[in-house]
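ok so I'm stuck.
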Amino acid sequence: MKQFSLMAGLLCAGLMLNAPAHAAKTYQVGTDAAYAPFESLNSKKEVVGFDAEVIQAIAKKSGIQVKLVNTPWEGIFEALKNGERDIVISAVTITPERKQSLDFSEPYFEAKQLIAVANNSKISKFTDLKTLKVGVQTGTTGDEVVQKLQGKTSPNIKRYESTPLAIKELQSGGVDAVVADNGVVVNYVANNASSKLKTIDDATFAKEFYGIAVKKGNKDLLDKLNKGLAGIKADGTYDKIYKKYFGK
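replied:
not stuck anymore, here's the structure
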């Protein structure tokens, strides 16, 4: 019996020595893939776009594994807080309110709001929207700036699940204008020549900065992301990705 136990013990020890090393953690990355050119789904239902390439380059640089998961915007931060997602990269503007419940990387993109209107619209500036129907994506900074103009309970603020949905409503005449991040609006107008839309840049719109979000207090992961981001900015990878999506 003792001899059997000894043999079994040696066999187990041998199996443990020959077992592969524990696989590295794969971080689940939440992104709302309805926000081209930052994130969208290709024909294979894979998440592609500027943010996708940035986070993949950061992961490679910092030696971590990531998996991009299409996650609806309205539940994206809750998924981060409850552990369903480890990272969120989804054209998220760093704001004081969001910093209360999330931790952000260093900024990786500068943006601002932009107004989209029909080509024949008489709208020329943001204050012209004071009493008009304005489409926004729910819970975005575009939503916030229009609330400041019209009031939080204004019935003229029309909210949609995505910016493209809001723009489609503009095309059909359901709203007078759409306020959203410049990169998304410019991309939509450029790729939909038949949309008969134009953009208006208002000097009152402040600069915004996108950051990569992690759960509050996850300093270890945040440090890895910041190290990777600094690395791809230093070696030219970031500039290469930026140029691919936004030109010079």
